[in-house]
Structure formats: C-alpha cells, structure tokens
Prior knowledge:
Layout: E1 4-9, E2 12-17, H1 27-42, E3 48-53, H2 76-84, E4 90-94, E5 97-99, H3 101-108, E6 111-114, E7 119-121, H4 135-138, H5 145-154, E8 158-159, H6 160-166, E9 171-172, H7 177-188, H8 208-220, H9 226-240, H10 243-258, H11 261-275, E10 292-296, H12 300-311, E11 315-319, H13 323-342, H14 348-356, E12 358-361, E13 372-375, H15 381-394, E14 400-403, H16 410-415, E15 423-427, E16 437-442, H17 448-460, E17 464-469, H18 476-493, H19 497-507, H20 513-520, H21 523-532, H22 545-551, E18 564-565, E19 574-575, H23 577-589, H24 599-619, H25 626-637, H26 646-652
Parallel strand pairs: 2-3, 3-4, 4-6, 5-7, 6-9, 10-11, 10-13, 11-12, 13-14, 14-15, 16-17
Antiparallel strand pairs: 1-2, 7-8, 15-16, 18-19
Helix pairs in contact: 1-2, 2-3, 5-8, 5-9, 9-10, 11-25, 12-13, 18-24, 19-24, 24-26
This protein binds 3-hydroxybutanoyl-coenzyme A (3HC) and 1,4-dihydronicotinamide adenine dinucleotide.
3-hydroxybutanoyl-coenzyme A binds near residues 22, 65, 124 and 131.
Amino acid sequence: MTAVTIEIENEIAIVTVDNPPVNALGHAVRVGLAEAVAKTDANDAVQAVVLIAAGRTFMAGADISEFGKPLAEPGLPDVVLMIEGARKPWVAAIHGTALGGGLEVALGCHYRVVDPKAKLGVPEVHLGLIPGAGGTVRLPRVVPVAKAAEMVATGKPIGAKDAAACGLANAVAKGDLRADAVTFAQEIAGKDLPVALVDRDPVAPLDPEAWGTVAGKLVAKARGQNSVIRGVDAVADAVRLDGPAALENERAIFIELMEDPQSAALRHVFFAERSVSKVAAIKGVAPRDLRHVGVIGGGTMGAGICVALLLAGLSVTMIERDNDALAAGQKRVADTLSASVKRGLISEDKRTALLGMFVGDFVYDALDTVDLVIEAVFEDMDVKKQVFAELDRVTKPEAVLATNTSYLDVNEIAASVKDPSRVIGLHFFSPAHVMKLLEIVRPDELADDVLATGFALGKMLRKISVPAGVCDGFIGNRILTAYRRECDYMVEDGAAPEEVDAAMKAYGFPMGIFAMQDMAGLDIGWAARKRRAPTRDPNERYVRIADRICELGRFGQKTGSGWFNYPDGSRRGEPDPIVEAIIIEEAAASGVTRRSFSAEEIIERILGAMVSEGEAILAEGIAQSAEAIDVVMINGYGFPRHKGGPMFAAKQG
Ligand code: 3HC
Ligand code: NAI
C-alpha cells in the first residue's frame, strides 16, 4: 500500500494520505507528502492541490510510536514548510480529527475546507509536548492570539463552526467534502498565492496586561505540568519573534520537552489507556445486544449511571424502593441533564428527547425486556442479594446482571442467582456520567460473551474499561484502602491532615486524600471497615481516628464536617480543633511519639503504599498489568497523569 497517492482531475491534484488507522504522519507519509509537493509543483497540468485523507480521519498527528527513536528525514517541520512554499495552492480537506502534526500540515496548506463534524486541535500538551511543526507559530497568525494560546495550553480541539468563526477554516463543506474542496480549489486556482502564514504578522496581538490575564489563567491550571507552561511561553514568543525565529524557538522547546520525564510518563499513559481494554478471552467474541438497560437505585451512582446510559443512546428503566425514592431518583437524572444544558453540552431538545427514553418504576416486573441491569443500591450484601433474587425472577435469561458494588464479593452475588455466568461487576466512578474509568470485574463463572458485553458497554459510554479480578476493592479501591491506611498512620504519627493534602496537591493530585474522603462521604468507608473488623489481624496496626470522626456523625461535606469543617455550606474545608484533639488522644492511646513530616516523605510513603499493594494485586492476577493499575489510579483517583501512574513513577525512581 502506498501511504500517499496523487490523482489529477480537471487540473486539480488530489493528494490522498492513507495510513490506517489514524493517518499518523509516520516516515512513509512524510516522504509521500514531500514527493507530492515536488510532483505537483513540476506538473504544469496542475493548477491547485487538494490534500485529503482516506478512512475515518484526517491526519491525527505525528506518529507517536516514532518518538524517542532517531529521526528519519524529512522531519515534519520541513514537510510543512515545503507545502507552505509550494508553487501551487494547497487546500486541506479535513474530516474526522486534524490533530497535532495533522493540523500543522493543514496550517502549511494555503486554505482549509472542513467537514461540519471535523475537530481541529493541538493535543500535544497531553503528551507532555508542545506542537513541534509550527503549530505555536502559525496558529496565532491565523486565529486570535488568546485563542491560539488556549488551544495549545488545553489541547482541546474545536469544532468546524468555531474553526470557521475564528479564521482557522476558510469554508465548511455543505455536501461531499472532497467535491466541495475541489470546487474551492477550482475557484482559487490561478489566483495569487496568499502570503505564507509564517511570514505574516500575528492576528491582533493582546496588550501586555490582557495577555498576562490570559496566560495567568492557563498556567494556573497546569498543576505542575511543564508542557502547559512552556506551551503558553511558546505562543508568547511566537508573537514577539518573526516567523522563522519563532519556528526555531518552538523546535528548541519541543526538543527540551521531549526529553522531560513528564513527556515519557504521558506517552506511557497514552499507550497504556489503549492497551488495557484488550482482553485475550474475548477476542472475536460477539457481545450480547444492548438497547434497553435497567438501573436499580436512583441515588448518587444510579442516577449518574442512568445519565451516562441515556447520553449513549440507550433506553433506561430506573427501579427504586418506593414512589418517593423513585421521584427523587428521577429528579436527580432530570437535574443532571438540565445542568448539561446550562453548560452548553446538550440542547434543550436533546434533554427532552433523552427524558423520553427514561422511565421509572418500583416494581421489578418492569424489567422483563431489558438486555442489561446495573444494580446501584446500598453497599450491603443482604440488600444486594434481595435485589438479585428479584432480577433472577423477572429478567429474560440472557440478560446481563451487573453490580456497581465498590468492595463486595461479586462471586458471592453471582452465586446467589440461578445462572452465575451472566453476573458481572461494572464499577463506575462518581459522577458516573463524567468519570472516564470503568472497572469491569470478572467473577469466576463469568461467560465470555457477558464480559464482551461489559466492554461493548464501556465503548458505547466512551469509558476506559479496565478488567479486574474479584477481591475486596478490586484494583482502585484496594489501592485506595492501602494508601489511606498509610495516610492514617502518618496523621497519628504527627502529620496534620491538611499537611498530607497539601503534599498531594503539590505532587499534582487535584485534591488530597482527606478532602477527597470528605467529598465522597466517610460513611461508605466506615461501613467497609466495620465489615472487615471481625477478620482483621489483631496484630495489625489500626488507626481509630476516622472511626471516631464518623461516630460523631461527621460524614464529610454532606454533614458540614468530617476531617475538616465546612462552615455555612462552604466546599473548602478548614482544619478543625475537634479533629486535632481526636488525633492527639488516639496517638497517646497508641503510645505514639508524634513528629513532623516533610512533603517529600509524605509522598514517598503514599507512593510506597500504592506500589506494594499494586505488586500484590499483580501477583494475585487481579490486574492484568502494571499499566492497568496506572490507568485506574490516573482516571479514577486523581493520580497526576504527567507522573505516569504509581507503578510507572516508582520505576523512574
Ligand atoms: N501515533 C501513533 N499511533 C496513534 C496515534 C498517533 N498519533 N493516534 C492514534 N494512534 C493509534 C492508537 O494507539 C490506536 O492503536 P491500537 O489500535 O493499536 O491500540 C489506534 O491508533 C486507534 O486510536 P484510538 O483507539 O485512540 O482511536 P479513536 O478513534 O478512539 O481516537 C484519535 C482517534 C482521536 C485520533 C485518538 O487516537 C487520538 O487522540 N490520538 C492522538 C492524537 C495526538 O495526540 N496527536 C498529536 C501527536 S504529537 C504531534 O503531532 C507532534 C507534532 O506537533 C510534531
Ligand atoms: P446512595 O445511597 O446514594 O443510593 C442508593 C440508592 O439505592 C438509594 O436511592 C436507595 O433508595 C436505593 N435502594 C436501596 N435499596 C433498594 C432496593 N432494594 N431497590 C431499589 N432501590 C434501592 O448510594 P450510592 O453512593 O449511589 O452507592 C450505590 C452503590 O454504588 C453502592 O454499592 C456503592 O458502594 C457503589 N458505588 C458508590 C460510589 C460513590 O462514589 N458513591 C462509587 C462507585 C460505586
């Protein structure tokens, strides 16, 4: 297969890139593009060139698998310069995603025609990089500087309409993209070439004060990620310098970041997130049909799961205990969808349509036709078993039965129904319609096509699905339990909860473990500890501080206090002398001499606890790989992505 082909139709050359799956700009594509410039320049029969890509997307970036290897010429920056310097006008015809190097190639083209569904962006920041083929230089010369900085620093792609409004797209296709791009090319053929972007002045540069505000806001969100900070620097430099000098400067920053351990970590995560869902047992196994799903429980998780399912186009029936609980659950769903309308994520019409696919009941018989049921009732084995007995009675025999339990034994739940092969764990994270992670828990008797159905659902919901074995807490909550215990030890030994939280934030977590527990509610963890109490090793160190906080009815933000105090409904916790007194009493009762902890020691201890539990999980086969653990901790528990996950970070030393 040739990666780049040229056809000539009525004096327009159509240059097609065909490098599945995402037309990444690997060596063969770069060589093909350089040759296409030379050939079309030399061919007098060609008046203009349309650059288009085959398959599902325009070029989605440089080939990430080539990173870290010696560069094979021509490099991408040179290819973009060749296109920009071509004698014939080049028109990029963009569908799918023009990302990173893909968008940079499109910026080298003299014009851009985009499909209405196309997305255009420079996501290099997520790989710990900045655009390295002129993106930071050409973008602020075609779109307003603040827009360019935002695109570079956030990596968020923009849609076709936005691209046309800000000047990035010259036209949005109305019919067939290729035909519209050819028509566009015929219209501009023979006219003077526009001035190359690299030779232009920036679009309406901001005055220093306004720039300071824009840059300050973007950098404030960096959480220590170098590529965000350096991306903003690169755009500022690109505006200050002339084009060629700015290109050199961008290259220098790109190379600096390529050698930054953060980029190695982020590239590790990129491939890890794509490999973790590959499970040998279901290769070639067809999933069961999924159209109508039942959800049991309309609380925090049940309602969030309903929203996620509705947004994926599935019909949903919610079951609650009684009319009042059902009304409350349905209201939660309706309110969440309203919030999505307010945030501009869906239209009011879409909300109405989704609510049309959503019904509720308190009689289980309403589930007689569902393809899948997800149980999200209280975390109590007896309650769950009662629910599964009802599901056994009313659902069709091939329906998949899933539990969203956080910690309970999915084998025991499976054994409570006639056909355990249809029981699976689908562990969502809160808020379920937002969080990307889904742990797919595999009990012993699970049928392969039920497992395949779990992964098919994960795909429909656009989640990262990670397979996990049955144990107390699966992958994520088990590691959470281990490092929370370590944090409890440190608090009893002398570190204040706010010091532990501050150390975690400085490392890159969005919030510390104690603030997180207060947000999630302390009661679920307390119930789990009480459940484990009878089997706990009496010789194991046990810190009672959290239990004593719960005994006071302090369950976190929802009760106004927990580890911290939340006066007047505030979401920002303040250290509370009551908690400090409990800590000091418990330390004295345990005979501990308290001492101070540095932020480095706190992080070392947390990482150590995560890694040793991670190793145990791997040895027991609960996780398929160290990558799976990293992906879970990053996407479910706020572990900083640019550190690569605990297992990766530990290897880096
Ligand atoms: N290089 C190499 N492989 C890539 C790739 C890339 N840029 N982008 C995707 N792939 C691979 C994936 O690893 C995956 O391989 P697999 O099937 O063997 O696991 C396959 O393509 C399909 O990818 P997804 O599963 O992610 O497919 P989706 O349809 O869900 O998403 C996508 C498609 C939106 C294009 C997504 O793959 C994506 O976001 N890719 C990365 C885009 C990116 O970061 N581009 C910038 C690269 S850096 C750069 O361009 C530097 C330049 O400035 C010099
Ligand atoms: P919740 O207390 O907010 O909601 C539980 C709901 O189940 C309540 O609305 C209750 O009325 C309903 N319910 C109880 N018994 C029922 C029955 N027999 N039939 C129908 N409905 C019944 O609890 P939450 O937080 O939503 O948790 C639910 C499950 O999800 C638990 O197993 C929990 O461990 C798990 N989970 C919770 C997460 C969280 O962050 N809250 C995250 C992941 C899993």
